[in-house]
Structure formats: structure tokens, C-alpha cells
Specification:
Blueprint: H1 3-12, H2 16-25, H3 28-43, H4 65-71, H5 74-80, H6 86-95, H7 101-107, H8 110-117, H9 126-140, H10 156-162
Length: 165
């Protein structure tokens, strides 16, 4: 399933006002594709079930980033990493046996999947790994990018790491 289809399925379960707001946050082409998928879901008679949308429950401050990321959906991780460099995505994938890994890789387009696969991750210092996981987990928290379709600023995780956050 493509990222657009997954995002449309999640959007389909939201209130119309929330759908409009989220669609206003993405690029014009993405919004056009998502609207077409939303029309298709309605035409197929698929119910607008809010249970399809991921939980936006805030993460606890004591919960490690890896636990938050492990619970995320492949679609949420895909959206959070959409504009990150391939080497950073490969590094994240190599850190743990993530439960969403296969679905995430299947959702990547061919060139992006090839770029991620062609990158050989280097071992990271524990502190750097922890910072990377925390930055991504923060992006997935409600005060960061919700897991329902907003796209973060390009390279935001990498930028946050460079700034020492």
C-alpha cells in the first residue's frame, strides 16, 4: 500500500474539519492525490471509522524513544521520515528489528527503497543513537508531527540532531 493510500485511510476516519485542516498542510499534489483516494473510499462504501486513525495520546517523558517508535504505524514513520536523507533512514532501520519495518519498506517508492538499501549504516555511539530515537519520537508526539498526515519540515530530524536537541 502506498503512503498516499495509507494516509487517505487514516484521514478517512477523521472528522471533515480535521481532514480539511490536514489537507491544507500538505503540498498541492499530495492533497490532490489524497482527495482522490478519499473519494474512492467513500465510493467503495468503506465506513469512516475513527479507530483507523492512530492514537495521539501523548508520550510519557520517561518512555524511551525506541518504545514510542516501535508502537508507531509504518505510515506514521513513513511520514515522519519522508524528507530525511536515505542514510538516516537506513541507520534507523538498522537500529532495531522494528515491527513496522517490512510495511515501511514496501511503502517506499522504488528509487527511495533502493537508496535506503544501498546505504550501509555505521555503528553509532549510544548517545547519538539515543538522540536520533528521541528526535524521531518527539516528531511523532502530538507537539511534533501528528501521525495522521502532516509532513515535517524537510530534514527536520537531522537538523534537530545537528542542533544538539
Amino acid at each position: 500500500m502506498t503512503a498516499h493510500r495509507q494516509s487517505a485511510l487514516l484521514l478517512h476516519g477523521l472528522a471533515p474539519g480535521d481532514q480539511r485542516w490536514i489537507l491544507a498542510q500538505v503540498g498541492q499534489e499530495d492533497a490532490r492525490v489524497l482527495r482522490a483516494h478519499l473519494r474512492e473510499l467513500k465510493a467503495l462504501g468503506i465506513p469512516a471509522d475513527p479507530a483507523l486513525a492512530p492514537s495521539n495520546a501523548p508520550a510519557t517523558g520517561s518512555e524511551p524513544g525506541s518504545a514510542i517508535i516501535a508502537r508507531a504505524s509504518a505510515a506514521a514513520v513513513l511520514l515522519a521520515l519522508a524528507d530525511e536523507p536515505a542514510w538516516l533512514v537506513a541507520q534507523l532501520l538498522a537500529m532495531r528489528p522494528w515491527p513496522w519495518r517490512a510495511a515501511f519498506l514496501n511503502a517506499l517508492d522504488g528509487p527511495r527503497r533502493a537508496a535506503v538499501g544501498a546505504t550501509a549504516p555505521a555503528p553509532l555511539a549510544p548517545r547519538v543513537e539515543t538522540a536520533l530515537l528521541a528526535a524521531l519520537a518527539a516528531r511523532m508526539a502530538p507537539q511534533g508531527v501528528p501521525a495522521v498526515g502532516m509532513r515535517p519540515a524537510p530534514g527536520a530530524v537531522w537538523q534537530r540532531l545537528r542542533e544538539g536537541a
